[in-house]
């Protein structure tokens, strides 16, 4: 607190010239939810050059200061499927670990702006699951430079792949002579899993047998040594198990201890012990209206509350949906409908994903020194009756959409 | 315990009174619902309110401190809950088996024949607090079947029925395979055919060709009732002179429902999927004289036709997609229009529509509308009183007041909060839904771990133990 006040005084002492900068300014809210369990009243948050410089509770709003009922940190979607087209993944190989989706992102896509407007300020983008291992993921903010080198926060930290139906869907065995690229890919769950194991075994064995070396083997070795996190899509309980067993098999073989997060785990509630045992975290898919999620999985509403009570780390995702009522904020609301407390729901879209990304020092909470990724709300966050009034990404205001009917 | 009131002498007096009254009243006893808040949709919400019901009707609504609860009323006391009138769906194509029809013009069909009372849709309606639904044929049509207003309770079509033949669906949006021009031509032809038919009937009568009457008499029967008489044709658009010469029963059964429309005796739900369709709908309604019976069922973006809608003075059912997003093709600038606000500002009565039969139901749409800029009162009206007026049941549904149907929904809290749930639903005075006894919702909220896969009993996990411990304790309490 002492530090907080001293910084606040320092900020007040500054000349006001910086207020003109695009990535500096201040915002006032009736309540600030810091994501660290604090709710501060009548708070002025000031930021300079994209970083939060002061948090002053009990302040009074200036006339020009943007003002709202609540302020939170910008939300983070770990499974924002933006640019989710077939051109964002190289399909000629089943296992393509050497490429990164960063090279396939269309930073001019209007979806980025739409996502930013709904309060999602940072995303983990994955290659679409059209082969078994799609490649490296990219962590980017939803607004900023259109140069991917500047926009990407961190590279080579997540390797994406999928279990289940997605990598084999559309594939077929060749009858007679092969007539399509889709003749040569796995057509079953077993085939998908075999590709995974082959990649890990080859990558591990290539130390002694160089002929087994393949492009991207180094990434698999980085996964085995825990330097790159494995991020696996697994909607159903059976796919969840396949992924966890793979991790355990690699450990049993002495190849290494894999850091793993599962994505789209609608059926996490069916086998929470497995997740506890293996220390695996999960990213939940959007809450469906009628219970059914991807690949025929059943997504019970209480799942977020259940995972929380069992101490299993989890984050929420909207899969990049920006339609009113289905945004990331609305997913947090739906998790609350299933019994999750507000603070836990807030953490699941801010602090926890920031931790998963290894960017806790910059993102995920409202604290002095962190990035000025902020969302201003008209009422209690995550309620349908509230809306996002304004969003800042790295201190820059996200331009609002025109609401004048045309 | 309720059978033995404390004040015995009062009870005896009442019992004497009850004996004088017809005894069936006891079968549908008086009921009282007490709730922490009662949102009546007829004035300010009442704190600590009570709703008195007698049989299927509400007889009084007021403050618990001011309204005396009859001694023989069964009392449901929910001090922590919020009572609302059941929501009203002004237009739905759910609850039917195959909602579209391949024939173009079928006003002689009736949605009754495709209603499926055991459709999960009706269960979902209760789960999300909808108690009145105007079911219409699908939008892929020219002139569709007659719809029906139903309640989501009952195992037969008769049991569901609130109002049969509640109105006819028409579409100004081209049916699959049609162009806009052929759709317009098909609409005009349907009314032209009706007119020709009626004129033929009159001509035949004037020429003394009374074949159908003679045929009936030859078969040993005669026309009966109102329809045996001729009636002068009513109609604000056009009339056929001399129709009073023709007994109404002689009008072709396939045409009769459309005659009802032209005479202004039937509602019309006119679907306009695009702004360009609004003109055709209004023109058709105007020419054929049923504009004041018309409700427009709109697709996204139809606010663009607002001037024409305002001039026509027709109410509208809004697109379930509340925010219409449009990107300028040149500047790529995005416009997000919350359509309800446009209609509100221009004074057009509007109702909201559910986006799906699950979570994104009327309460969800109302809550989102508050987020987008309606007041709570406006949003709630758009799912209760406004649709009730549109479907012709004003004062009967969508409101809690004396004389209204006893359709009451009890929410665990603010009806527009994501955290609130529908706990109890009363339809026609009967409790028809209790969340604690809803196995499907339990499955949706609590899942159901398949045997042998989930729980390792010996797992020494504190979090897990506390959960399991609580569950088993709850079970014990149930015993």
Description:
The complex is a heterodimer of chains A (406) and B (479). By secondary structure, chain A is of the alpha/beta class. Chain A is 25% helix and 21% strand. In chain A, the strands form three sheets. A seven-stranded mixed beta sheet of chain A has the order 3-2-1-4-15-16-17. In chain A, helix 9 packs antiparallel against helix 10. The radius of gyration of chain A is 22 Å and the shape is globular. The model of chain A is unreliable at 1-19 (pLDDT under 50). Chain B has 479 residues and is of the alpha/beta class. In chain B, strands 5-6-7-8-9-10-11-14 form an eight-stranded mixed beta sheet. In chain B, strands 3-2-1-4-15-16-17 form a seven-stranded mixed beta sheet, with no helix packed on it. In chain B, strands 12-13 form a two-stranded antiparallel sheet. The longest helix of chain B has 27 residues, at 180-206. The two termini of chain B are 21 Å apart. The relative contact order of chain B is 0.13. At the A-B interface, helix 2, helix 7, helix 8 and helix 9 of A face strand 12, strand 13, helix 11, helix 14 and helix 15 of B.
Which labels suit this protein?
heterodimer, A: about 400 residues, alpha/beta, seven-stranded mixed β-sheet, six-stranded mixed β-sheet, about 20% strand, disordered N terminus, B: about 475 residues, eight-stranded mixed β-sheet, 17 strands
